[in-house]
Design brief:
Structural class: alpha+beta
Strand content: 5-15%
Number of helices: 23
Shape: globular
Number of strands: 19
Distance between the termini: 25 Å
Helix content: 40-55%
Number of domains: 3
Oligomer: single chain
Bound molecules: adenosine-5'-diphosphate, magnesium ion
Largest sheet: 9 strands, mixed
Length: 698
């Protein structure tokens, strides 16, 4: 039996290790930095660095790395050994405070969206002392923020930290209004549920589309898919179970709180949900989780697919971002309370979220946009591209009676009034599950369900934190100046409900009728990445992020540019992979099959001219016609790609062209190829089929 409590966090320089290994004064100074964002004294850093190094070496580390999260969506690292030369041609192991706090790396090849000229290629990494250092592969990993020489964020962590700070400040103002003077810090908490596919490595290796793009670009529907719902929460196959155990252990060592595992809707699809954590730690852990999901799979001769839509016709993979706000005194601010007073406070936070989501629907949509995620949103398996909030019937009824000043039907039938002692007890966690809502209240947190599976969680949380901070800022200003606090609070809550209730929708988000209804309500529907990316540079959004010091205008322009270019690049790679697979694999295979058929036909006719040969004739006709269609469509795709690749075009124009011309051409080509796959002999078809891949792991 493994001692899991001893294993958990054994590779993490966590609070317990720090308490044991740091002098009391150093530990306290570090805590002050962590809790109050105080600048760290270099002498403190030197002591921490020395203790970290000793601990790391005892655990077998020889190197250290500043670990950061550039705009590629994955992490980056550059390893330095601890060695330092001393007299007598010897080395000692050293690690200075300076090396801990700040790193410099040539960063010219990371996407910067024009923030960094190539002549100023330096990027800087700065230690994030709020996320623990850890050891992986004999290397000490130091979580860091990554920015340019001028201090502009080039990464996903910096804005997240800034947004947490912005929210902290505004939440504290509101809490103080309610008399919570003991709270000195609040943090957003995040628990990301991660979906993924596992397939056999041997199959994967034979699919260039999976290797290049993470998804299948061809593949006829298998005879069996997910229609029986026999995979969802089904018994876990032993090879998968072994993988999950192994993954748990690797992640536990790194302090990741892996908790729940189960099979998901599609065959070969699974999910892991950790226990929630402070947002920036959760974001770091989510990156580690995605990385280790892939690494551990390799040990089991499996491949973990994190793409949002690896297989057409079965569910794709998402990531659910559970989000709440906690105080350092242990209060969850989105948990309905036991007293009217607590519930008035809860309602105010609820209203802040409602108003934030309504006003910044566009930024929430854009925060989860990617070419991969476009395949899921609105495809009857994931929430639609329309952002709305699910509150559940009871909470909605409470808000309605507040707005109208009518009685709310609880056991006591109370008149709903905020601030006086007539607010009823709020139902706790009676919310029914609504899987179709993009943004659902689930009793004590919100679950943002539009994220793609391969996406880091930082960006959506940046938007949530900042948009909610803005509302709380306005609420606090209004209430701080009020003579009659309760009266002003009641009026404010009623006003927010009245003005923003259009964003609340408790029905079926997959229903066509909802799209129509959403339009009537004036909600945004931005189906693709190319459609929504321009929201990044809308004046109202730039104003929001600038005001709270989360993004500068230049940083928003740069992100817009990076995502736009990335969208086109992803589609470019996919389209070229299709061209190559068609030309080099599919066309030769169908020609061979055609020859086999033709030869069989002439052999039969030669042997016995009176034979009908209906099968061979019909098949040969079909295959031949579809092959011609295939090559026509291949030519078509080549043609539109050439247009897309013409130099000198505006990035938005290029993105729109990929959306309008290249994607349809890819779909058409795929249709011909999939039509051929079902006709051609299995031994001649060049790739493993959907059936092979989805049901291969036992
Ligand atoms: P359910 O979806 O049934 O409510 P849980 O309550 O276990 O299940 O939550 C699911 C996910 O939500 C888990 O990843 C969990 O860590 C996360 N979660 C729970 N509470 C919070 C919270 N206060 N803040 C952020 N995430 C949370
Ligand atoms: Mg799920």
């Amino acid at each position: 039996m493994k001692d899991i409590p001893a294993l958990f966090g054994c590779m993490v320089f966590n609070d317990q290790v720090m308490q044991e290994r740091l002098p009391e004064a150093t530990y306290q100074a570090l805590m002050r930095t962590k809790e109050n964002g105080r600048k760290l004294d270099p002498s403190v850093a030197a002591v921490v660095a020395a203790a970290m190094k000793d601990w790391a070496i005892e655990k077998g580390a020889t190197h250290f790395t500043h670990w950061f999260q550039p705009m590629t969506g994955i992490t980056a690292e550059k390893h330095d050994s601890f060695i330092s030369p001393v007299a007598g041609d010897k080395v000692i192991m050293e690690f200075s405070g300076k090396e801990l706090i700040k790193g410099e790396s040539d960063a010219s090849s990371f996407p910067s969206g024009g923030l960094r000229a190539t002549f100023e290629a330096r990027g800087y990494t700065a230690w994030d002392p709020t996320s623990y250092a850890f050891i992986k592969d004999n290397t000490l990993y130091i979580p860091t923020a990554f920015c340019s020489y001028g201090g502009e964020a080039l990464d996903k962590k910096t804005p997240l930290l800034r947004s947490m700070e912005a929210l902290n400040k505004q939440v504290l103002r509101v809490l103080h209004l309610f008399g919570n003077e003991d709270v000195t810090m609040v943090r957003t908490t995040v628990g990301p549920e991660q979906e993924y596919f596992l397939i056999d490595k041997a199959m994967y290796d034979r699919r260039k589309d999976l290797i290049n793009t993470g998804r299948t670009l061809f593949g006829a529907r298998p005879s069996k898919g997910q229609e029986l719902h026999d995979h969802y929460y089904g018994a876990i196959k032993s090879r998968v179970a072994a993988y999950m155990r192994d993954l748990d252990e690797e992640l536990w060592k790194l302090g990741v709180l892996c908790k729940t595992e189960h099979n998901e809707g599609a065959p070969a699809q699974h999910e892991m949900a950790p226990i929630f954590n402070t947002a920036n730690i959760a974001a770091d852990h989510d990156q580690l989780t995605m990385e280790l999901m892939k690494k551990v799979a390799a040990r089991h001769d499996l491949v973990c697919l994190l793409h949002e839509k690896p297989f057409a016709g079965v569910n794709g993979s998402g990531k659910h971002n559970n989000w709440s706000i906690s105080t350092n005194t242990g209060m969850n601010l989105l948990e309905p309370g036991d007293t009217p007073h607590e519930n008035a406070q809860f309602l105010l936070f609820l209203c802040a979220v409602i108003k934030a989501v309504d006003e910044y629907q566009d930024m929430l949509r854009v925060s989860i946009a990617s070419a991969g995620n476009d395949h899921r949103l609105g495809a009857q398996e994931a929430p639609p591209a329309v952002v709305s909030i699910f509150l559940g019937d009871e909470l909605t009824a409470i808000l309605e009676s507040l707005e109208n000043g009518t009685a709310y039907a609880t056991k006591e039938q109370v008149q709903m009034k905020v601030g006086v002692h007539t607010l009823p007890r709020f139902p706790k966690d009676t919310t029914d599950r609504n899987r179709t809502s993009p943004f659902a209240f689930t009793g004590n947190k919100f679950e943002f369900r539009m994220l793609g599976s391969s996406q880091p969680v930082s960006e959506p949380n940046v938007v949530l934190n900042t948009a909610v901070a803005k509302q709380l800022d306005e609420f606090a200003t209004e209430l701080e100046g009020a003579e009659d606090f309760n009266g002003a609070l009641g009026a404010l809550i009623r006003r927010v409900i009245r003005e923003h209730k259009r964003i609340i929708f408790n029905g079926n988000g997959y229903d066509e009728a909802w799209t129509e209804e959403a339009k009537r309500r004036g909600l945004l529907n931005l189906p693709t990445t190319a459609d929504c990316l321009p929201c990044y540079i809308l004046p109202k959004n730039i104003a929001l992020f600038e005001k709270y010091g989360v993004y500068s205008e230049a940083e928003m322009h740069s992100r817009y540019d990076i995502y736009l270019t990335n969208y086109a690049k992803v589609l470019h790679i996919e389209a070229h992979t299709m061209v190559s697979m068609t030309q080099k694999d599919i066309v030769p295979a169908v020609i061979r099959y055609g020859r086999e058929l033709a030869e069989a036909l002439s052999a039969k006719r030669a042997a016995m001219p009176s034979l009908a040969c209906n099968t061979e004739t019909a098949l040969l006709e079909k295959v031949s016609a579809l092959t011609d269609q295939l090559t026509d469509r291949l030519a078509c795709l080549r043609q539109v790609l050439a247009v897309a690749e013409q130099p000198g075009q505006e990035p938005q124009t290029v993105a729109n062209y990929y959306r309008d011309e290249v994607i349809p051409a890819m779909d058409a080509l795929r249709q011909s190829a999939d039509g051929l796959e079902v006709l051609v002999a299995k031994d001649l078809w060049p790739f493993p089929s959907y059936g092979d891949m989805l049901f291969s792991v036992r």
